[in-house]
Every structure is written in structure tokens, then in C-alpha cells.
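My current task is to audit a protein record that another person submitted. My question to you is simply how this chain folds and whether the C-alpha cells agree. This is what I was given:
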Amino acid sequence: MMATITVVLSSTVVNVALPDIMGVFGIGQDQVQWMSTGFLAAMTASMLLNAWLNDAIGVRATFIGSLALFSVASIIGGVAPNEDVLTLARVAQGIAAGIVQPLAMIMIFRVFPTNERGRAMGIYGIGVVLAPALGPALGGWLTDNFNWRWVFYMGLPTSIAGMLLGLVFLPGRLGNKKAARFDFFGLLLLTLFLAISLYAVANGQRAGWNSNFIVGLSSLGALLMLAFIAWELKTPQPLVNLSVFSASRYSAAAVVALIFGAGIYGSSYLVPLFMQIVQGYTPTLAGELLIPGGLILALVFPIAGRLTDRFPAYYMVGIGLFLFGLSNMLMYDMNVDTGFWHMALLVLLGRVGLGVMMPALNAGALSALPQAMLAQGTGTINFVRQLGGAFGVSLLAAATEIRFGFHADTLAATQTAGNGTTLELISRVAGLDNSWGVPVTQTNAGALNYLGQMVAAQAQSLAYGDGFALVAIVFWVGILPALWMRPKTKEE
């Protein structure tokens, strides 16, 4: 639980410090989103290393080594002199997070007998839920009262505690079997696919979506994805067992998991930025707004788990998709005047939707597979969810940049000499500047600069609204594959 708290905190808590990081290093949203995307992409690829490392060097060494890597990366992130070093530190944190996260489930199922696993999962779940609920608020407080660098040090106490406890309690190896042959070539293809595809998405707006550079990178990414799929189907010991997708219900659940990952990580990235950039909230206030949504998950999880035993999985997943989509669609009209609790309740509604669908999604996916494929199915559905998160953050950041440019151009085109409201605003601002002692030769320039800032602020607000609407539409479209999870027979 110490390790999970550490990595769950780091997956989202940096988001409240992104505006400060943008200001310090003078970078835009297309560059700063790599703090989240790089972390998620690295975690997606490295989580596939977990089982092999457990067999090769043992659980204890895997656990302690991963947390040591995470701790070193956290320190490097805290002292990073530029955005490149900071991004590399986040990637290293993601590698450690991906390796260490699956260990919790492995150890709970190994240590506790069947009749005690529910209680163990409940205690473990408290830490998992409280970390993202309280982490952003603490991260915001550190950013406001110290600076953003302290956010990277937040996970060090639990990381060090986890290493000490792991040194005492964790076993060296789980059995005496030797490590199986690992699909390093498959991991290389997957890593290259993720890096090149995400880089193309992140730089599309700056370089031009139709430019030879972006088209070439996108084409290379697509070829690498096809090569990865072909290799995984061919190799006897694949990194990702694609045979699980032969079950149509499982494939439908995987599509929903992809959407789920994109939505939860994408919204966790977008909401803090909107609150700070558009509404002018402090990092502390932005973090506090996320607390109610995080805490509601602690109440919804056990209830949703029981309801999943009583109702079909596709039914619960569909309700969750609809609620999260509704939450984001209601955010479409949010602006600088939207109240704190109005926003907090909308975020809370979305978290209720996620809590309702999460247990049912896993249960519905695995119920479609035979007993012998449950291990592969569990790992693959987690991989797909993380893959959705990596691409969700990157695509959502790109979409808001595109819509910002569109709205800025559209609004600027209306600011003409024939627009009486614009002329009146310029006249009043120029008059105020003149009354404050600004030379007459500079008042018009100052008024035009103020007008430009207002147009940019309005365009930013509209762009974020479009981003929330996009998330809503994707989640509502996801109800279709959720319906395909329906069993062909009455058996669930």
C-alpha cells in the first residue's frame, strides 16, 4: 500500500503544478503535457516487465529496485534545471510505477487466504482512494507556500517506508522456477510505437498536422503498431497475449477500458489546468476542489461492487459511462464566473460514474474468458486502460490547442472598426489609462493590448469547454461497445 500510494500520488498530483512549471520554463501546453503523457506512456510499457522481473530477480529486489528508481527520479525532478530533464524524470517515475503497481495484487492474493482477501482489499483500497483525493490539495499547498519543486518530493516518505517494509517482509522469489524467455523485441516495438506516436500528436499543432514531419511520424507509428501486433501473434511467448481478444465480449470491454483510461487521466489533466488558467484559482484551491470527487469514490466502490454481483456488468458500465459523459458535458458551459461548488459537484458526478463502472468493467471483461486465460486477461485489460490514458492526455491537450487557435482567430475577426462594442471598450480603457497618467500616445496601444488579452482569455475558456465536450461524446459513444459486453446467454 505504501508503494501504491507513492505511484498513484505521482500519476496526477503534478497536474496542479503544471501552470507554474509552464511559467518558470516559458513553455506551452503542448510541451508541458509531456509531464503527464511521458509518465503514463512509460508506465504502460514497463508494467509488462513485472512478471518477468519477479521470476528473474525476485519480488523483493523488483519492489525495492523500482521504489529506489522512483525516489532518485523524484529528486532529479525536484532539482531539474529545464523541462527536458523534468520530462526524463517523469518518464523514469513512470517506469518505476508500472513495475511496482501490479505487485500489490500479487502479494494480496498470495499472502491472504480466500476468506480474508476482501478485508485486505478493503484496507488496501483506503490508501488507493485517499491518495488521489488528498494528494492534489497537498500538492497545491506545497506549490503555493513553497514552490512546484516540492511536489516531486511528496512521494519520498512513503517510498522510503515502502522500501524498508519490503526489505523486512517481502519474499525473495515466488517459487523456484526460472524466469521465462522475455519478449524484449516486442517491448522495443511497443516503446517505439508509443514514443513516436505520442510525439507526433504533441507536436502536430506546432509543426502543422499536414506537414511532412508529422505525417511521416504518424505513418511510422502506425507501421510500428502493425509490426508489434504481427510479432505478438507470431512469437511463442508474447508480451501481450492477443488471443484474449478472440472473445468478443472481452474485446468490447477492452474498447471501454481504452475509453475509461483516456477519460479519467484526460480529465484529471484538464480540470486543474482549466481552474488555474481560466478561473485564476491558486494550486491549493484547485487541489481542494478535487477532494470531494476523490472521497466519493471511497463510498461508491463498495456499493458498486455489490451491485455488480446483482446486475449485469454491461448495465453498470453503461450507467457509469453515461454519468461521466454527463458530468463533462455540463462542464462545457463553465467559464470564469462558474462557482467553486458548482464545479466541485460536476467533478463529483463524474467520479460517481467512474466508481460505478470500474468494478463492473473488470468483472465483465474477465467473465468472458475461460479460467486458463484469466491471468493474461487481467494484465491485458490493465495495459489497455493505461494505453488509453497515455493517448487520452496527449490527444486532449492537442484538441484544446487546436480549438484555442480556432476560437482566437474567430473572435479576433470580429474585432473591427464596425464593432461598436469593441470601439467603446477601447475608448473606455484608453480613458482609464489616461486618467492614471499614461501618455496619450500610449493609451490606444494599452487598450488594444487589453483587448487582445480578453480575446485570448475567452478563446481559452471556449477551448477547454470543447475539450470537456469531446470527453463527454467519447464516453457516450463508449456505451455502444458496453452493450456488446452483454452475454449471449442468461449466464453472467
The first helix runs from residue 2 to 12. Residues 248-492 form a domain with the Growth Hormone; Chain: A; fold (CATH 1.20.1250.20).
